[in-house]
Amino acid sequence: MDEQMNQNQTANQAANMGTGEKTFTQEDVNRIVQERLAKEKAKNSGEADFAKREQELARRELHMSAKEKLAEKGLPTRLLDALNCADKDTMEKSVATIETVFNEYRKESMKNIKFKGFQPGVSTKLPDAGKTEDLAIRSAMGLPT
Questions:
Q1: pLDDT of 5
Q2: Do 67 and 80 meet the contact criterion of CB atoms below 8 Å apart?
Q3: Comparing 118 with 44, which gets the higher pLDDT?
Q4: pLDDT (tens digit per residue) in 85-105
Q5: How far apart are the first and last CA of the chain?
Q6: pLDDT of residue 141
Q7: How far is it, in rounded angstroms, from Cα 112 to Cα 8?
Q8: What's the burial of 32, exposed, middle or buried (CB within 10 Å: 0-12/13-18/19+)?
Q9: Distance in angstroms (rounded) separating the CA atoms of residues 75 and 68
Q10: CB count, 10 Å around CB of 85?
Q11: Which residues lie below 8 Å from residue 71, measured CB to CB, with a gap of 6+?
C-alpha cells in the first residue's frame, strides 16, 4: 500500500510540474484566436477584392464588345441596356436577337410610307405650277407650264 501511495504522489508531482508545456489562460487563447482570425480575414479580403475587380473588368469588357457589335450592325448603342451581358455567348445571342427584331421593325415601318408629290418614273403628269408667279418663273426658265 505504501508503494501505491508513493506512485500516486509521484504522478501528482509530475502532473503539477508539467512536462515543459506552457499553460494559457482563457484570455490568452481568445487573443491568439482573434489574431489568427484577423490575419485570415485580411488575407481573404484581399482575394475577394481581387476577384471582385476581375469580375468588374470582365463585365466592362463585355459591355464594350456589345457596344462595338451594335455599332457594327448599324443599331443604336442605346440598346446596350437591353442586352444580357452575362457572358460572351449570351451577349452575342442578345445582339443577334435585337438585330433581327430591329431589322423586321425597319422593314414593316418602311412598308407604310406613302410618298407624296412627284415621283420620277411613276407618273407622266407634270407637277402643278400653282400660283401665277410660279408660272412666270417657269416660263422665264424655259420650263413647260
A1: 47
A2: yes
A3: 44
A4: 888 888 888 888 988 988 888
A5: 147
A6: 81
A7: 109
A8: exposed
A9: 10
A10: 19
A11: 77
Residue 118 is predicted with a pLDDT of 61
The dihedral sign for the CA sequence 135, 136, 137, 140: positive
- Distance from C-alpha of 67 to C-alpha of 59, rounded to nearest angstrom: 12
**CA nearest to 79, candidates 89, 91, 88:** 91
Residues in the chain, overall count:
145
Q: State whether residue 97 is helix, strand or coil.
A: helix
Rounded to whole angstroms, the Cα distance separating 69 from 67 reads 5
Q: How many CB atoms lie within 10 A of CB 62?
A: 18
Q: Which of 102, 118, 98 minimizes the C-alpha distance to 110? A: 102
Higher pLDDT: 15 or 96? It is 96
